[in-house]
Design goal:
By secondary structure, this protein is of the alpha+beta class. The chain has a single domain (about 1-65), classed as Alpha-Beta Plaits (2-Layer Sandwich). About 35% of the residues lie in helices and about 35% in strands. It is built from 2 helices and 4 strands. The chain has helices at about 10-25, 50-55; strands at about 1-5, 30-35, 40-45, 60-65. Strands 2-3-1-4 form a 4-stranded antiparallel β-sheet, covered by helices on one side. A hairpin with a 4-residue loop joins β2 (about 30-35) and β3. The longest helix is centred in the first third of the chain and has 14 residues, at about 10-25.
């Protein structure tokens, strides 16, 4: 599981958009997004660097990323 702190996620529209992008990337992913904390927790088989690149391509900055068991 990854925990990513983002910058630039400012509305529920951002949450829906980014959630949709990540679910299309991996339909089996388990995903939690917090607008208040601008945090994404995702359980996926996708590599962290690829995940960060996808998020950045959508216009969000990844401030930090952690791998969680």
């Amino acid at each position: 599981m990854y925990r990513l702190k983002l910058k630039g996620m400012v509305s529920n529209r951002c949450v829906r958009h980014l959630g949709g992008v990540l679910q299309r990337m991996d339909p089996k992913a388990k995903l939690e997004i917090s607008l208040e904390g601008q945090i994404i927790q995702i359980e996926t088989l996708t590599e962290l660097e690829k995940l960060k690149k996808i998020i950045q391509q959508e216009g969000y900055e990844v401030e930090s990323a952690q791998v969680r068991p």
